[in-house]
What does this fold into?
Amino acid sequence: MTNRHTSKASWDNETLPQGAAKQTAVREMFDAIAPRYDMVNRIMTFRLDVRWRKITVRSLGLARGSRVIDLASGTGDFCAELRDNGYRPFSIDLSFGMLLKDHSNSPRTQANILRLPMPDAAVDGVTCGFALRNLVDLQIFFDELARVTKPTGRVALLDVGVPSNSIIRFGNSIYFGKIVPLIGGLLSNRAAYKYLPRSVAYLPEPDKLREMLTQSGFKNVEHRQLSGGLTQLLTATR
It folds into this structure.
């Protein structure tokens, strides 16, 4: 596992990393926070993350037995939910530290999800949770999703959002920007949980995200705000 003192500079600075530096920073950061990732998530979201994953998996609407890959799979929460819904999950993550903490017992591999290690039209569906903002190139990612997903297959992509309601947005900015780093610092790695709220800046606006998915060959692209916009869910059909 990467030592947090040697990797701290990768993400603990005022300028958000870009390109190859961003990929390295993300991998090192998630390796560092893997041991307590699930516990911190449950605490800082008041277990809303469990509800968000359930909604995301239900939105796939695929037949039981469908092969679904979970990308940036972390400790396997999505894979466990996918299996509970009758799907056959496969886990892929860049962080070896996260894969070591996988609790879903799903088949898994370490890989860069911008270059998926599978043939064309190999899966019925794709899920991805809280990773869009950590990717170096979203258009390449969407192109890869289109490549590996079968015709009529489905993708469901969950990430943090910016609430449209000004009151909720203000409260969320205080909590996400100030309180979450304190919680992360007490329970895990302060530098990482300071970076994660700031990383929202990487995300394009919802209209742009829909446009990018359409450009990659998806149809029926929909965007939903969950919990007042604390998170956002993108769904689409290949």
Remarks:
- Strands lie at 67-71, 88-93, 108-110, 123-129, 149-160, 219-226, 231-237.
- Residues 162 and 205 are 9 Å apart (CA to CA).
